[in-house]
Design a protein that fits this description.
The chain is mostly helical. Helix content is about 40%, strand content about 0%.
Amino acid sequence: MKMRGISQYKLLKDYHFSAGQLNRLRNNHNVNTYTIDQLCKILDCKIEDVAIYLEEGTSDIEK
């Protein structure tokens, strides 16, 4: 988002992004594919740029 010059505030006000979904993203909770699709369109990026797959029960990203 920083590279695209889009703040969280701009997502909410200019793109009418859901505050609830933004909060879910901030807290690493489940989000639906529609939300990911909209975020990718806004940021003009691929899904790999905004999400990773973690197996169930995995609590952290391995480095």
